[in-house]
Amino acid sequence: MHGPRSDTRARIVAVALELFSEHGYERTSLREIADRLGVTKAALYYHFKTKEDIVQGIVAATAAPIHELIAWGREQTWTPEVRDELIRRFAAGMSERALLLRFFQENQPALRDLPAGQEFRDSMIALVRLMHGPGASFEDRLRAAMSLFTINSALFLLQQDSRPGADPAAGGVPVAEATREEAIVAAQHVALEICRLIGRPAPTD
Amino acid sequence: MHGPRSDTRARIVAVALELFSEHGYERTSLREIADRLGVTKAALYYHFKTKEDIVQGIVAATAAPIHELIAWGREQTWTPEVRDELIRRFAAGMSERALLLRFFQENQPALRDLPAGQEFRDSMIALVRLMHGPGASFEDRLRAAMSLFTINSALFLLQQDSRPGADPAAGGVPVAEATREEAIVAAQHVALEICRLIGRPAPTD
Amino acid sequence: MHGPRSDTRARIVAVALELFSEHGYERTSLREIADRLGVTKAALYYHFKTKEDIVQGIVAATAAPIHELIAWGREQTWTPEVRDELIRRFAAGMSERALLLRFFQENQPALRDLPAGQEFRDSMIALVRLMHGPGASFEDRLRAAMSLFTINSALFLLQQDSRPGADPAAGGVPVAEATREEAIVAAQHVALEICRLIGRPAPTD
Amino acid sequence: MHGPRSDTRARIVAVALELFSEHGYERTSLREIADRLGVTKAALYYHFKTKEDIVQGIVAATAAPIHELIAWGREQTWTPEVRDELIRRFAAGMSERALLLRFFQENQPALRDLPAGQEFRDSMIALVRLMHGPGASFEDRLRAAMSLFTINSALFLLQQDSRPGADPAAGGVPVAEATREEAIVAAQHVALEICRLIGRPAPTD
DNA sequence: GATGAATGAGAATTCATTCAT
DNA sequence: GATGAATGAATTCTCATTCAT
């Protein structure tokens, strides 16, 4: 082992993720990334072959926990407890992965054709399958998916609530302001609730 | 009445929505839109001041039902039945609005600064508020949001399942293939289930 | 006679001159002219074949007094008194022609190839010749030209003096603020002074 | 010393000034500049952020002598001799600055809003103030301005005289053809004459 | 006398990418 | 490990102009 491949490489990945998730992949130019790092565009090309390659780098640097989670899930025999544990573990790393999740959710068009994008979507699908177990109906697949998405959505909702421009009169009701920590706890609660609907008969509408 | 302002204008909106939702806002050039319509780029500029203005046109042409739904919701006094009815009505138009919803979900970075984007987000937030009623906790807001998102996500999930490249071995289990109609029914089921969690105490994890 | 060819035509000329002299020929689009008149671009094309044609229209509507002045000058036998009278008459109409003069001075690149531009320059040259009379040296031609330009420049200078952004410390001295009327009087004074230098031997530098 | 920042940068400035002063700022496209240099448009953007920025570059590369002249003038106590010396020094560099002066005189609309344009006008105003000294009347300011303009105008007049299209019959008199050198000498003569009018009582018209 | 709709040509600008040093 | 200089391809947008009605 010879330590990190290079400090700069890691810094590029970090800054790129930050800018991609904040302003979007297409709206972030390599110049912006280079500027923020205090290097030139050409330097980026020393570390990455293309802009798309930086995305690959981001995934490589961040996706390990999810792969581990999937690997773990595949070793287990499906039970409701395993299912709940999947959600808990998925929620556990959420805070660190928040940028990544946002990046993937909000940049689908750019990511659709990228290997990194495919890979990420496959991971999500794999997680969904692990959650609902074998032989599930479409309805159960949807429940499982929504349970996972809950984790992703909580921080998004939190952000909306604290958005300055938000129309306070909208809906006519005041809403509870939550902290980031409360949001994470709530996300896990709700996600568990939802995944426990799996296998239940649907309500009669 | 003087009929449609112009056929071309409406056709631009339709084609733009189609391309924007399929390939993304940034990846769709005005040339592509014009080509598909059999007109020149300059013709687009006769009808819309800027590319962003086309988005505004899309919203103006599509958002009416949602505004009506919000207006209806504001006239009602909140009850669980009203809440369920909101979901049903929201789900009702889903098929026609599928492109619009996808467009908004997958192009946040481009839409964030656009008036049309703000407006759409405000609409969603307003719906969330109408769903959970006054004095809701963050948890209940999250439940309401997830209930709405379920409608948006069902078609997304359906699409994944039928995606050619999908790794069949992923998760090790076969999944039920659903038709578009079944997906819509399932979406409403699950959305109702989730919104009925509103007000319940959270599970002990 | 059937009166003015059309009211709109005259209004186009007036508005165009105003905008051309304020923002420049190239920076003024036909849309701006049309908008300010409350008509469409296409309407302009009913009255004028091209944008350049509007310039021709401006000249046709404004240049008569200068042509008359030239005609008058050609009828006279040159004397210092005739020369002075040329300046006086040229200065007399200055206020009304201010926009036109400014337009021609500040838009040379656009006007260079236009017939209207040629014509205007020829008029100026003709006036210069009338001022210095036959057999003049280059120096005398320059004196005559500067005498004429003085009229053009006075309003320009006045405008600079009253410009808000003008650096008051520049040059370290306060300057006398003049009114428009004073400027016109001064212009004629100085122009006469200068044209009276014609025929004098040059100073030994 | 690290030599010229880049040869290309300087060549861009030179070619741009040439084309801007010959065909006008608006009528000169970046493609023309690039073509004449044998580079691509994008290369221009490597060296200058915008087209307007090239103008800034032109000024930066050419305005030093004028600034020095102003600085020198500010150090002197005003006397008629200082005033005359200002004109002489201004005239001295005229030949090299001819393009620049023409560019500024004939492209006012484009330059009006540019910092470079403001700066240039301020320089001219500053020179005028230095020429007439403290406590001048508007008339004296006008004399000072005309004296400076004489330098600018001489080459313009020369060019008119040698213009092929010039109507030889105009004014009915033949004119003395001058060489470029004679024009410069004449310009300084006449400019001095005019500036010596400063402080004189006006003629009775 | 005028409009609505459209075009063709071209402009400025941006960006990912390359490569010699 | 990195830079300076440059490119090629595209993009959004503007404008004078046309023409059927």
Could you walk me through the main structural features you see in this protein, from its secondary elements to its overall organization?
The structure is a homotetramer of 205-residue chains. Chain A is an all-alpha fold. Chain A contains eleven helices and no strands. Chain A starts with 6 loop residues before the first helix and ends in a 10-residue tail after the last helix. Chains A and B meet through α8, α9, α10 and α11 of A and α8, α9, α10 and α11 of B. The structure holds a DNA duplex (21 and 21 nucleotides).
Short description:
The first copy, chain A, has about 200 residues and is an all-alpha fold.
Question: Which properties best describe this structure?
Answer:
homotetramer; 70% helix; mainly alpha; Arc Repressor Mutant, subunit A; 11 helices; DNA-binding; 2 domains; 205 residues
Query: Roughly how many Å apart are the termini of chain A?
Result: 60 Å
Structural class of chain A: mainly alpha
Main interface: chain pair and counts:
A-B, 70 and 70 residues
What is the helical fraction of chain A, as a range of percent?
Answer: over 70%
Q: Based on CA inertia axes, which overall geometry of chain A fits?
A: globular
**How many H/I helices of chain A?**
11
Give the quaternary arrangement of the chains: homotetramer
| Relative strand content of chain A | under 5%
**Domain module count of chain A:** 2
Give me the Rg of chain A, rounded: 19 Å
Q: Main β-sheet of chain A, in a few words? A: none
* Contiguous uncertain segments of 5+ residues of chain A: none
